[in-house]
Amino acid sequence: MASTMLARSSTRSLVSTLQLRVTVPISSRCYATGHSIPPLNDQSLLKSKAFIHGEWVNADSGKTFEVKDPSTGKLITHVAELDVAETQRAIRSANDALASFRRTTAKERSRFLRKWYDLTVAHTDDLAKIITWENGKPLADARGEVNYAATFIEWFAEQATRIDGAVLPASIPGNRVLVTKEPVGVCGLITPWNFPAAMITRKLAPAIAAGCTTVSKAPGETPLTALALAELAARAGLPPGVMNVVTSLANTPAVGETLATDPLVRKISFTGSTNVGRLLMKQASGTIKKCSFELGGNAPFIVFDDADVDAAVTGAITSKFRSSGQTCVCANRLYIQEGIYEEFATKFAEKVKGFKIGGGYGEGVTHGPLIHDRAVSKAESHVQDALSQGATVMIGGQKLPDLGSNFFQPTVLRDMKPDMLLAHEETFGPVAGLFPFKTEAEVVTLANNTEVGLAGYFFSKDVQRIWRVAEALEVGMIGVNTGLISDAASPFGGIKQSGFGREGSIYGIDEYLVMKSITLGGMGGDLQN
Ligand SMILES: NC(=O)c1ccc[n+]([C@@H]2O[C@H](COP(=O)([O-])OP(=O)(O)OC[C@H]3O[C@@H](n4cnc5c(N)ncnc54)[C@H](O)[C@@H]3O)[C@@H](O)[C@H]2O)c1
Ligand SMILES: O=CCCC(=O)O
């Protein structure tokens, strides 16, 4: 009871913060943030409880965790810190809902998704403000993310009605083989903080389109967007239990293990680091769950001498600095062929000079903070390692303490060498290292010299080279003469230790379906008189 009241007061506090735009301590557990955010049109989108069986619930323990604004480090609100028991309850809710939801028609599921899509688009401004608040990305980027997130809902609203089967010629006389596709069952969906809306809709929309029921684990850093999306899904009429959202920060490993080991869960889809993916895969193996894993990358971005250098600079800026370098498909290693190295480096650094760094609501801000100080330390360590081995800074290279503890300068390093840390580890921050190379064969060897294989990019005007290099790069997604490959229509996913499974596209729904063959015997006899 006390915890219920506490959480109610937390939500009220959050709402008052938005209405009043003032710095006022409201309660000892949740207070205004000290920097104002634009008020929401619909303040009831702000939730601080988890969503189980169509109800907003606190943790049984009454525990909460803090969600902080990465721009200021200040508290946004406290969110329910769920544990194993509540996660099991969410799984049972999804399991109870499955029996009837799997029997809904594709058209019904499609209509539901369409309503959810319409509501998401209608609330773009509010969702974007929430994303900026908890993730830090500039408001324009946050709006772009809401649009991107909504395209997955729209896409799978359309795909829901296209789940098909087959009739196959049997090799046994008199038999006929039918193939149907069915929902895999209860799905455990675990998503990261870097795209608080799009990573969750990219899993939820195909799961629902397929007729599955779900338990999503919202990222501890950015749970508010996931909860707002759940509110919109409920408004769209999704039956209780089809979409449950559990929230946790400290209890995340226990919640994750519960999802990955509970026999009622038939599918785990995870987006995040390779290390956590490895752990979840091990845990999920006990009950042989269907899995898809979208894990870490270390994308090569190659510019050949024959490329349009200006286009390559634009593509590299988009790919490297999207979300301040915090996307799994961000260029991590920029390989520039010797003939155009100087021109590329100068033009690239010049563009980076034009960035405006600051809090995501700031006028004209192009790049926000990193998510937390660990991310800043990683960027800093990659810069230090490169400098200690002979790289030079063209621009940036420092923290920006005057802006806040999570800010790091967009950085361009030149004269990078293959042994440097940045060549082998995903920076996940705004540091671009320019590596010179001589030949096509050399650069493809360098590009493939990594355990992961998510995205890769290259710029060239030679059509034969385009085929050669595209076929030789060991990645799941390639951008040729573009730095932007993310699209609901395109299959998203990696190879090697970047994981397996594909999201979006005509293939994404297969991750949530299982195939069943039905063999009919005694068929095809003579016509009866
Ligand atoms: N391939 C992709 O589509 C994709 C997309 C986004 C991020 N990523 C990768 O994610 C990484 C950055 O995110 P991060 O550092 O927050 O990743 P992370 O693996 O630490 O966390 C990602 C998510 O997993 C949850 N999590 C953490 N530990 C867990 C555990 N033991 N059990 C269950 N869930 C757990 C977190 O709460 C979070 O929601 C990068 O490596 C990046 O490339 C990949
Ligand atoms: O960070 C990973 C996902 C980014 C994207 O979908 O473009």
Automatic annotation (TrEMBL):
Gene3D superfamilies: Aldehyde Dehydrogenase, Chain A, domain 1 (3.40.605.10), Aldehyde Dehydrogenase, Chain A, domain 2 (3.40.309.10). Pathway: Amino-acid degradation; 4-aminobutanoate degradation. One of its GO terms (molecular function) is succinate-semialdehyde dehydrogenase (NAD+) activity. Residues 56-518 form the Aldehyde dehydrogenase domain. It is an enzyme of class 1 (oxidoreductase). The keyword Oxidoreductase applies. Keywords: Oxidoreductase. InterPro entries: Ald_DH/histidinol_DH, Ald_DH_C, Ald_DH_CS_CYS, Ald_DH_CS_GLU, Ald_DH_N, Aldehyde_DH_dom, Aldehyde_DH_Superfamily, Succ_semiAld_DH. Its EC number is 1.2.1.16. GO terms for cellular component: cytoplasm. It catalyses: succinate semialdehyde + NADP(+) + H2O = succinate + NADPH + 2 H(+); succinate semialdehyde + NAD(+) + H2O = succinate + NADH + 2 H(+). One of its GO terms (biological process) is carboxylic acid biosynthetic process. It comes from the Eukaryota. The keyword Oxidoreductase applies. Belongs to the aldehyde dehydrogenase family. PANTHER family: SUCCINATE-SEMIALDEHYDE DEHYDROGENASE, MITOCHONDRIAL (PTHR43353). NCBIfam families: SSADH. This is Succinate-semialdehyde dehydrogenase. It comes from Eremomyces bilateralis CBS 781.70.
